[in-house]
Amino acid sequence: MFQTEYEFNLPMGLLDASGTLHRDGVMRLATAADEILPLKDPRVQANEAYLVLILLSRVVTRLGSLSQVNPKVMEGLYSADLSYLQEFYNRINRNGNARSDAICPKCAHEFELEMSAPGGS
Predict the structure, then answer these.
(1) What are the domain boundaries of the chain?
(2) Whole-number Å distance between alpha carbons of 78 and 53
(3) What pTM does this model have?
(4) Which end of the chain, N or C, is more open, meaning fewer C-beta atoms within 10 Å of its C-beta?
(5) Where on the phi/psi map is residue 64: left (φ > 0), alpha (ψ -120 to 50), or beta?
(6) pLDDT class for 51, splitting at 50, 70, 90?
(7) Can you spell out the DSSP letters for 5-46?
């Protein structure tokens, strides 16, 4: 079966106004529209760095118990979490997989390793 959604755990987490920490989430694979349409956004045209916030807000379908994920939510991410999500996005959209095969260097046991940033659980 073709997997289109991937769970993640932010290294630090998003702290909302009520003090709730949101770390777990789901990201779906990006469509062509997800990568093209944000280029027309005036915020991106004024500042290219804003592209990643809009793009991630389109593909992150759940973040903790937040009712919606939008660019304003993404603005509140710590830098480490933003970097993690960018890397995660690239991994699942370029490779189609958030896991990697690994081999123990001591015993040669083969296993599947879920890729995550340091501090993730």
Answers:
(1) 5-114
(2) 12
(3) 0.77
(4) N
(5) left
(6) very high
(7) EEEEEEEEEEE-TTS-EEEEEEEEPPPHHHHHGGGGSHHHHH
CA proximity to 77, closest of 7, 15, 19, 27? 15
Start-to-end CA distance of the chain, whole Å, equals 26
Q: What is the pLDDT of residues 9-33, one digit of tens each?
A: 999 999 999 999 999 999 999 999 9
Q: Which residues pair with 100 in a beta bridge?
A: 113
Which of 76, 88, 119, 66 lies closest to 7, judged by CA? 88
Q: What is the mean pLDDT of the chain?
A: 88
Burial label, 102 (beta-carbon count in 10 A; 0-12, 13-18, 19+): exposed
